Fold this sequence. Notes:
The complex is a heterodimer of chains A (about 450) and B (about 280).
Chain A: E1 7-8, E2 15-16, H1 21-45, E3 55-61, H2 69-82, E4 86-92, H3 97-108, E5 115-119, H4 120-129, H5 136-142, H6 151-156, E6 158-159, E7 162-163, E8 166-178, H7 179-185, H8 196-207, E9 214-217, H9 222-231, H10 249-263, H11 271-274, H12 279-284, E10 288-294, H13 298-304, E11 309-312, E12 322-331, H14 338-350, H15 352-361, E13 365-366, H16 371-378, H17 388-391, E14 396-397, H18 405-420, H19 426-440
Parallel strand pairs in A: 3-4, 3-5, 9-10, 12-14
Antiparallel strand pairs in A: 1-2, 5-12, 6-7, 8-10, 8-11, 8-12, 8-13
Helix pairs in contact in A: 2-15, 5-14, 9-10, 14-15, 18-19
Chain B: H1 2-34, H2 56-61, H3 69-100, E1 101-102, H4 106-116, H5 121-134, H6 142-145, H7 152-163, H8 167-175, H9 180-191, H10 193-209, H11 212-217, H12 226-231, H13 241-275
Helix pairs in contact in B: 1-13, 3-7, 3-10, 7-13, 8-9, 10-13
Amino acid sequence: MKDFLITYISRSKRETLPLKESRIMKKAIYLLCIVLVAAAAPLFASGSDEGDSAVTIKYNNFSAGEQNAGVLQAMIAAFEEENPNITVENEAMGYGDNYWTQLVTRIAGNDAPDTFELNMENFLAHATRGSLRPLDSLFASTGLDKSVYSPGLLDAVSFNGELLAVPLMFSTVVLVYNMDLFDEAGVAYPTQDWKWADSLAAAQKISALGDDVWGMYNPIQFWEFYKVSQQNGGGLMTPDGTAFTINSKENVATLQYMLDRVYKYHVMPTREEQADRPESDLFIENKLGMWLNGVWAFNDLKTRADFPWGVEVEPGNLSKATHFFGNVGCVSTTTKNPEEAFMLLNFLASAPAAVDMRLDAMWELPTVADPAIMERYINDTPPENKIAVLNSLEYAVKPPALEKFAELTNIVNTRIEMARDGLLSAQDALDLAQEEAVENVKL
Amino acid sequence: MIVKKTIQKILFYTILTIVALAALVPLLWMISTSLKAQEAIHTIPIRWIPKEPSLKAYEAIFSLTNINFGRAILNSFYVSIMLTIIPLLSSAMAAFVFAKIEFKGRDKLFSVFLITMMIPGTVTMIPNFIILKGLGLLGTYTALILPALCNAFAIFFIRQNMIGIDNSYLEAATMDGASLYRVFVQIMLPLSRPVLFTMGLFNFMGAWNNFLWPLIVLTNRKKWTLQLGLGNMGTQFGNYQHYLMAGALISIIPIVIVYIIAQKYVEEGLSTGGLKG
């Protein structure tokens, strides 16, 4: 070790120089340490500290966004007031890949937040990975009442017979329609019994009203496809989830129908005809008769649409299938404070104060079963026939429960979009998607 | 002959101008969008000069509930400066050793350093995360700085330059009684200035734009950098694009200023760092 670093090199000749290497090394190390400590000093100071009895819960979430950030803060403040020994660290983030990346890394790195929010498709992916703590025993130990939640929603957050999340909020997707355009085209308003043929006939009459007037708008992509295929007796997997059925004859007929609405019947604009205009703008400008959208769009439409508009359950074909979006709260398997984390989730989902705040802010729908609460929501119009929002829940379908859900989405969506752009036929697109899914997505 | 040359020149500059303008289009769209109201963003055809330009988006991003934008800017400066200076110092030290000090296995050790350049950052992400958790450093800026201390590319880049420095400077200083530390600080560092500036600029730009690693280790919103703030503006049901564009424009200003200041050195540093060795 003594000779380490003391030979000073010259390319042509070597000379050993009388240097005190250990002193130099020490100086260098001191210097590095000083700089590192300087960099870290202000941060250690602001680290979290906990008292003996106080508990701090980290709540990682994404759904509030900027619009409802204040509402979430108020809910948390109300919870902390009710539970003075619990402090909540609100780790509110934006929605997108960022959120999932950091959450998965933290779980994998054994540093999961005590409690975190998931949307439905990611809930299923996490449930299959085993990163969620079963909640039945927590309902028992905290004495909280499970029956305050809608049974359908509790069913949606159960996996293999275990309750793995608290349903925090939900939205359904409904058929939104412009009553003026229906009147102008002489078509009766949609009803809950409508099928594909009824909506297509209405769309054709509305499209005939003008060059840039369109009967309907339903996007051609993965999310739409997995739902519409179920309306036609299809689906992406066998009921027991052991095999893919992406290119089944029902699915091919479904995709063909979706394409026909654009290219054969022309009741929906092509991408060129739409020219990047958001569907909401087409609707507001009286250029779109029917449009599928979630309850989250109501606020915007309410302020911008100057014509009467209503909603109805989405038409099906052989059966009905509707989209349901929900965000759920989960307790980490590694938290040291599962009861406190669980109490927070229940407060956010079902405490009367929190439910009121959610309804006032129109931040999706509360998940409680009490009909009186929902009545307040339904009577607040427009849109007309708001009960359709709740009726749609009856036909809600879940996305496939797969660990590699993101991969499947990517494969199927790429091929469907190629069909949408005229690069592949419906049959070819789904044949390729089936082949790639079998090869790359393990079941 | 002259006419032919003139035509060639005109053609050359026309093509270059078109390419330069094309490269500017996204920037112009950013500026234009940041001055629009939410409803006017998607109008077709694109309205390049907003009908009613306003600085509301710039005002709004500084009063968001979820993200403290002013604080994020300060955090970004702090992190970027630290991530420029500290890794630069550690890399220069290592480069000096690899370039000028001989010891057994030096070249082999250097090869190992170089091999680490081949490992994608995403592969080391979770091991790094677990190590930092073990050290209790998650949620601190040290967690950003520590993994950056050993930057194989920077060591390689600076070493290439240091190899080219004549040993007679070092020998003369040593004969005058200078310690190795003094040789490093008073001879090697000043003589490597262009390459250090270049590497410093790379470090600064990398740190300023860094997103993934801070996203994972900085869970406390008070410590978020500007890029984390921008990346977390999205909501489940749509984005505030005018806010995003205003924020993104603010975020590129420091990079442009630093680049303008350091441009002369960077050009020099790139040529020396890249060629000699």
